[in-house]
Amino acid sequence: MARDGIVPSTLNGVKAADPGMPTIESPPALSFENVSKTFLVSGDIPLAALRHVSFRIPQGRKVAIIGRSGSGKSTLLHLSAGIEWPTEGAIRLMGRDLAGLGDRERTLLRRETVGLVFQFFNLLSHLSVRDNVLLPAWIASDLGPAAASRAEELLARVGLAGRLDDPIRKLSGGEMQRVAICRALLRRPKLLLADEPTGSLDDENGRVVMEQLLSLSSQEKTTLVYVTHSPELAALADETWTLHSGLLELTGGRH
Protein backbone atom coordinates (compact mmCIF):
# COMPACT_ATOMS: atom_id res chain seq x y z
CA MET A 1 0.00 0.00 0.00
CA ALA A 2 1.31 3.41 -0.88
CA ARG A 3 1.72 6.20 1.65
CA ASP A 4 1.18 9.93 1.21
CA GLY A 5 0.12 9.42 -2.39
CA ILE A 6 3.42 7.74 -3.32
CA VAL A 7 3.11 4.64 -5.47
CA PRO A 8 6.11 2.28 -5.42
CA SER A 9 7.33 1.03 -8.77
CA THR A 10 10.50 -0.37 -10.25
CA LEU A 11 12.23 0.81 -13.40
CA ASN A 12 12.78 -1.70 -16.16
CA GLY A 13 16.47 -2.37 -16.44
CA VAL A 14 17.83 -3.08 -19.94
CA LYS A 15 21.16 -4.85 -19.87
CA ALA A 16 23.90 -4.07 -22.36
CA ALA A 17 24.91 -6.76 -24.84
CA ASP A 18 28.20 -7.38 -22.97
CA PRO A 19 27.47 -9.25 -19.71
CA GLY A 20 30.44 -7.47 -18.15
CA MET A 21 28.95 -4.05 -18.75
CA PRO A 22 26.79 -2.35 -16.11
CA THR A 23 23.00 -2.45 -16.42
CA ILE A 24 21.51 0.43 -18.40
CA GLU A 25 18.17 1.61 -17.11
CA SER A 26 15.68 2.98 -19.61
CA PRO A 27 13.74 6.02 -18.40
CA PRO A 28 10.22 5.43 -17.16
CA ALA A 29 7.52 6.11 -19.70
CA LEU A 30 5.90 8.49 -17.22
CA SER A 31 6.86 9.81 -13.82
CA PHE A 32 5.31 12.22 -11.32
CA GLU A 33 7.40 13.71 -8.52
CA ASN A 34 5.38 15.25 -5.68
CA VAL A 35 2.73 16.54 -8.09
CA SER A 36 -0.23 18.54 -6.83
CA LYS A 37 -2.97 20.22 -8.83
CA THR A 38 -5.29 22.82 -7.32
CA PHE A 39 -8.21 24.52 -9.06
CA LEU A 40 -10.03 27.64 -7.92
CA VAL A 41 -13.80 27.20 -7.70
CA SER A 42 -16.45 29.86 -7.07
CA GLY A 43 -13.84 32.48 -7.80
CA ASP A 44 -11.22 31.92 -5.10
CA ILE A 45 -11.94 28.71 -3.19
CA PRO A 46 -9.07 26.20 -3.71
CA LEU A 47 -9.95 22.61 -4.61
CA ALA A 48 -7.15 20.03 -4.57
CA ALA A 49 -7.60 17.57 -7.46
CA LEU A 50 -4.24 15.86 -6.78
CA ARG A 51 -2.13 16.00 -3.65
CA HIS A 52 1.59 15.15 -3.60
CA VAL A 53 1.37 12.30 -6.10
CA SER A 54 4.58 10.46 -6.99
CA PHE A 55 5.09 7.40 -9.19
CA ARG A 56 7.15 5.89 -11.98
CA ILE A 57 5.64 3.74 -14.71
CA PRO A 58 8.19 1.54 -16.51
CA GLN A 59 7.96 1.29 -20.27
CA GLY A 60 5.54 -1.40 -21.41
CA ARG A 61 3.58 -1.46 -18.14
CA LYS A 62 -0.24 -1.46 -18.04
CA VAL A 63 -1.79 0.53 -15.21
CA ALA A 64 -5.48 0.94 -14.40
CA ILE A 65 -6.71 3.85 -12.27
CA ILE A 66 -10.04 3.64 -10.47
CA GLY A 67 -11.86 6.11 -8.27
CA ARG A 68 -15.11 7.95 -7.83
CA SER A 69 -16.20 10.76 -10.14
CA GLY A 70 -14.32 13.91 -9.23
CA SER A 71 -11.45 12.00 -7.60
CA GLY A 72 -8.86 13.46 -10.00
CA LYS A 73 -8.52 10.63 -12.56
CA SER A 74 -9.02 12.75 -15.68
CA THR A 75 -6.85 15.50 -14.22
CA LEU A 76 -4.02 13.00 -13.80
CA LEU A 77 -4.31 11.96 -17.45
CA HIS A 78 -4.41 15.58 -18.66
CA LEU A 79 -1.28 16.36 -16.65
CA SER A 80 0.40 13.23 -18.04
CA ALA A 81 -0.21 14.43 -21.60
CA GLY A 82 0.96 17.96 -20.88
CA ILE A 83 -2.51 19.34 -21.55
CA GLU A 84 -2.66 20.82 -18.03
CA TRP A 85 0.09 22.06 -15.72
CA PRO A 86 0.67 20.98 -12.11
CA THR A 87 0.42 23.52 -9.32
CA GLU A 88 3.62 22.02 -7.95
CA GLY A 89 5.90 19.08 -8.68
CA ALA A 90 7.62 17.65 -11.76
CA ILE A 91 6.26 15.48 -14.59
CA ARG A 92 8.55 13.61 -16.96
CA LEU A 93 7.51 11.93 -20.18
CA MET A 94 10.05 9.41 -21.47
CA GLY A 95 12.58 11.11 -19.21
CA ARG A 96 11.90 14.65 -20.48
CA ASP A 97 10.79 17.24 -17.96
CA LEU A 98 7.63 18.86 -19.35
CA ALA A 99 8.33 22.06 -17.41
CA GLY A 100 11.53 22.56 -19.39
CA LEU A 101 9.75 22.55 -22.76
CA GLY A 102 8.17 25.43 -24.64
CA ASP A 103 4.65 25.20 -26.02
CA ARG A 104 5.79 23.98 -29.45
CA GLU A 105 8.23 21.42 -28.01
CA ARG A 106 5.57 20.10 -25.67
CA THR A 107 3.05 19.82 -28.49
CA LEU A 108 5.55 17.95 -30.68
CA LEU A 109 6.52 15.61 -27.83
CA ARG A 110 2.85 14.82 -27.18
CA ARG A 111 2.20 14.28 -30.90
CA GLU A 112 5.12 11.88 -31.28
CA THR A 113 4.94 10.12 -27.90
CA VAL A 114 1.36 10.04 -26.60
CA GLY A 115 -1.82 8.43 -27.91
CA LEU A 116 -5.18 9.47 -26.45
CA VAL A 117 -8.42 7.48 -26.24
CA PHE A 118 -11.57 9.18 -24.96
CA GLN A 119 -14.87 7.94 -23.55
CA PHE A 120 -16.96 9.54 -26.30
CA PHE A 121 -14.67 8.51 -29.19
CA ASN A 122 -14.15 12.06 -30.63
CA LEU A 123 -14.47 10.78 -34.19
CA LEU A 124 -15.43 12.98 -37.15
CA SER A 125 -18.79 11.87 -38.52
CA HIS A 126 -18.17 13.23 -42.03
CA LEU A 127 -15.05 11.09 -42.50
CA SER A 128 -14.76 7.40 -43.27
CA VAL A 129 -13.40 4.83 -40.86
CA ARG A 130 -10.01 4.85 -42.61
CA ASP A 131 -9.78 8.65 -42.69
CA ASN A 132 -10.59 8.94 -38.99
CA VAL A 133 -7.67 6.66 -38.19
CA LEU A 134 -5.43 8.70 -40.49
CA LEU A 135 -6.16 12.01 -38.73
CA PRO A 136 -2.90 12.04 -36.68
CA ALA A 137 -0.89 11.57 -39.89
CA TRP A 138 -2.73 14.49 -41.50
CA ILE A 139 -2.01 16.71 -38.52
CA ALA A 140 1.67 15.74 -38.58
CA SER A 141 1.88 16.29 -42.38
CA ASP A 142 2.97 12.68 -42.68
CA LEU A 143 0.18 11.29 -44.82
CA GLY A 144 1.43 8.78 -47.35
CA PRO A 145 1.42 5.10 -48.35
CA ALA A 146 3.08 4.02 -45.09
CA ALA A 147 0.43 5.74 -42.96
CA ALA A 148 -2.38 4.32 -45.10
CA SER A 149 -0.93 0.82 -44.82
CA ARG A 150 -0.56 1.20 -41.07
CA ALA A 151 -4.18 2.34 -40.69
CA GLU A 152 -5.49 -0.61 -42.69
CA GLU A 153 -3.32 -3.04 -40.73
CA LEU A 154 -4.58 -1.74 -37.36
CA LEU A 155 -8.21 -1.84 -38.47
CA ALA A 156 -7.77 -5.41 -39.67
CA ARG A 157 -6.39 -6.37 -36.25
CA VAL A 158 -9.57 -5.16 -34.54
CA GLY A 159 -11.88 -6.86 -37.03
CA LEU A 160 -12.77 -3.83 -39.16
CA ALA A 161 -10.94 -4.67 -42.39
CA GLY A 162 -14.22 -4.68 -44.30
CA ARG A 163 -15.38 -1.30 -42.97
CA LEU A 164 -12.58 0.99 -44.22
CA ASP A 165 -14.77 3.19 -46.42
CA ASP A 166 -17.88 3.13 -44.23
CA PRO A 167 -19.01 6.41 -42.70
CA ILE A 168 -18.60 6.52 -38.94
CA ARG A 169 -22.35 6.85 -38.37
CA LYS A 170 -22.87 3.27 -39.59
CA LEU A 171 -20.74 1.81 -36.79
CA SER A 172 -21.85 0.59 -33.39
CA GLY A 173 -20.44 2.15 -30.23
CA GLY A 174 -17.99 -0.70 -29.75
CA GLU A 175 -16.80 -0.41 -33.34
CA MET A 176 -16.35 3.35 -32.97
CA GLN A 177 -14.14 2.86 -29.94
CA ARG A 178 -12.04 0.34 -31.84
CA VAL A 179 -11.55 2.97 -34.56
CA ALA A 180 -10.54 5.48 -31.88
CA ILE A 181 -7.98 3.04 -30.48
CA CYS A 182 -6.51 2.48 -33.95
CA ARG A 183 -6.27 6.26 -34.42
CA ALA A 184 -4.44 6.61 -31.11
CA LEU A 185 -1.94 3.90 -32.10
CA LEU A 186 -1.37 5.05 -35.68
CA ARG A 187 1.95 6.83 -35.03
CA ARG A 188 3.24 4.19 -32.61
CA PRO A 189 3.11 6.20 -29.37
CA LYS A 190 5.26 5.20 -26.42
CA LEU A 191 2.44 6.03 -23.99
CA LEU A 192 -1.28 5.41 -24.46
CA LEU A 193 -3.67 7.28 -22.16
CA ALA A 194 -7.28 6.11 -22.12
CA ASP A 195 -9.96 8.04 -20.20
CA GLU A 196 -12.94 5.74 -19.49
CA PRO A 197 -12.52 3.95 -22.86
CA THR A 198 -15.50 1.68 -22.16
CA GLY A 199 -17.65 4.21 -20.32
CA SER A 200 -20.10 4.60 -23.22
CA LEU A 201 -20.42 0.86 -23.88
CA ASP A 202 -22.45 -1.94 -22.38
CA ASP A 203 -20.65 -4.55 -20.27
CA GLU A 204 -20.17 -7.10 -23.07
CA ASN A 205 -18.82 -4.59 -25.62
CA GLY A 206 -16.77 -2.91 -22.92
CA ARG A 207 -15.02 -6.15 -22.07
CA VAL A 208 -14.26 -6.87 -25.74
CA VAL A 209 -12.90 -3.37 -26.37
CA MET A 210 -10.79 -3.45 -23.20
CA GLU A 211 -9.28 -6.80 -24.09
CA GLN A 212 -8.43 -5.51 -27.58
CA LEU A 213 -6.90 -2.36 -26.11
CA LEU A 214 -4.70 -4.41 -23.79
CA SER A 215 -3.76 -6.85 -26.54
CA LEU A 216 -2.83 -4.11 -29.00
CA SER A 217 -0.78 -2.21 -26.43
CA SER A 218 1.15 -5.42 -25.69
CA GLN A 219 1.75 -6.12 -29.38
CA GLU A 220 2.88 -2.52 -29.94
CA LYS A 221 5.00 -2.49 -26.75
CA THR A 222 3.13 0.64 -25.69
CA THR A 223 2.78 1.70 -22.06
CA LEU A 224 -0.91 1.92 -21.19
CA VAL A 225 -2.58 3.97 -18.46
CA TYR A 226 -6.35 3.78 -18.39
CA VAL A 227 -9.08 5.15 -16.17
CA THR A 228 -12.11 3.00 -15.43
CA HIS A 229 -14.99 2.73 -12.98
CA SER A 230 -15.00 -1.06 -13.37
CA PRO A 231 -12.98 -3.15 -10.87
CA GLU A 232 -13.30 -6.10 -13.28
CA LEU A 233 -11.70 -4.18 -16.16
CA ALA A 234 -9.08 -2.68 -13.84
CA ALA A 235 -8.07 -6.20 -12.80
CA LEU A 236 -6.93 -6.89 -16.39
CA ALA A 237 -4.00 -4.47 -15.95
CA ASP A 238 -0.59 -5.25 -14.44
CA GLU A 239 -1.35 -2.87 -11.57
CA THR A 240 -4.44 -1.17 -10.21
CA TRP A 241 -4.18 2.24 -8.57
CA THR A 242 -6.95 3.98 -6.65
CA LEU A 243 -7.45 7.75 -6.50
CA HIS A 244 -9.30 9.06 -3.47
CA SER A 245 -9.46 12.72 -2.45
CA GLY A 246 -6.47 13.48 -4.64
CA LEU A 247 -4.25 10.75 -3.15
CA LEU A 248 -3.00 7.78 -5.18
CA GLU A 249 -2.57 4.28 -3.79
CA LEU A 250 -1.42 0.98 -5.26
CA THR A 251 -4.32 -1.37 -4.52
CA GLY A 252 -3.77 -4.42 -6.73
CA GLY A 253 -1.50 -6.14 -9.19
CA ARG A 254 -1.29 -9.36 -11.16
CA HIS A 255 2.51 -9.47 -11.24
Task: From the structure above, extract its key features.
alpha/beta, Rossmann fold, 255 residues, 30% helix
What's the structural blueprint in terms of helices and strands?
Elements (H helix, E strand, L loop, with lengths): L12 E2 L9 E2 L4 E12 L3 E13 L4 E5 L6 H8 L7 E6 L2 E2 L5 H11 E4 L11 H5 L1 H5 L5 H13 L15 H13 L5 E5 L7 H17 L3 E5 L3 H4 L4 E6 L2 E7 L2
Parallel strand pairs: 5-10, 5-11, 8-9, 9-10
Antiparallel strand pairs: 1-2, 3-4, 3-6, 6-7, 11-12
Helix pairs in contact: 6-7
What separation lies between the terminal Cα atoms?
15 Å
**What is the CATH superfamily?**
P-loop containing nucleotide triphosphate hydrolases
Shape: globular
Helix and strand sequence:
EEEEEHEEHEHHHHEHEHEE
Proportion in β-strands: 25-35%
CATH class: Alpha Beta
Task: Please give the number of β-strands.
Answer: 12
Low-pLDDT residue spans: 1-19
